[in-house]
Specification:
The chain is mainly alpha-helical. About 55% of the residues lie in helices and about 10% in strands. It has six helices and three strands, in the order H-H-E-H-H-E-E-H-H. It has a three-stranded antiparallel beta sheet with strand order 1-3-2. Strand 2 and strand 3 form a beta hairpin. Helix 2 packs across helix 3 and helix 3 crosses helix 4. It is elongated. The model has no long low-confidence stretch (mean pLDDT about 75).
């Protein structure tokens, strides 16, 4: 009986809408604190914007902040661990490079496939016969 209630409660609970790293980046950019944003302010921002429980968000954010400092995604202005203030590193502030679409390369490949379809039928490649040892 307890398991059914526990499972029902867990199924109604909202999951994180995006990777926590992205949510933290969004929070820090929107909070615009000059000396960096605190964990508490980041948690409140994410919980309010996405309608999540602060306790759930807090546990995810703590781990993500620690990991972000280690990987270089975040810079810790004050404090240690998940306490203190955090800013985005210079690399994290740069927008992600957009993949360039090569239109010129796509056009010749399309014309080649049309020529092959309109031309003679292509013969199927012969299967390589395998030599069996007796």
């Amino acid at each position: 009986r307890l398991n059914k209630q526990k499972n029902a409660a867990m199924s109604t609970q909202k999951t994180m809408p995006a990777p926590v790293k992205d949510l933290i980046k969004e929070a820090i950019l929107n909070l615009k604190d000059r000396s960096g944003s605190s964990r508490q302010s980041i948690v409140k921002f994410i919980a309010a914007k996405h309608g999540l429980d602060e306790a759930t968000v807090n546990s995810h954010v703590k781990l993500a902040l620690k990991r972000g400092v280690i990987t270089g995604f975040l810079v810790q202005q004050k404090g240690t661990g998940a306490s203190g203030s955090f800013k985005l590193s210079a690399e994290a502030k740069k927008p992600a490079p957009k993949p360039k679409v090569k239109k010129a390369a796509a056009a010749p490949s399309a014309s080649k496939s049309k020529k092959a379809a309109s031309g003679k039928k292509t013969s199927k490649p012969k299967k390589a016969t395998s030599a069996k040892k007796h």
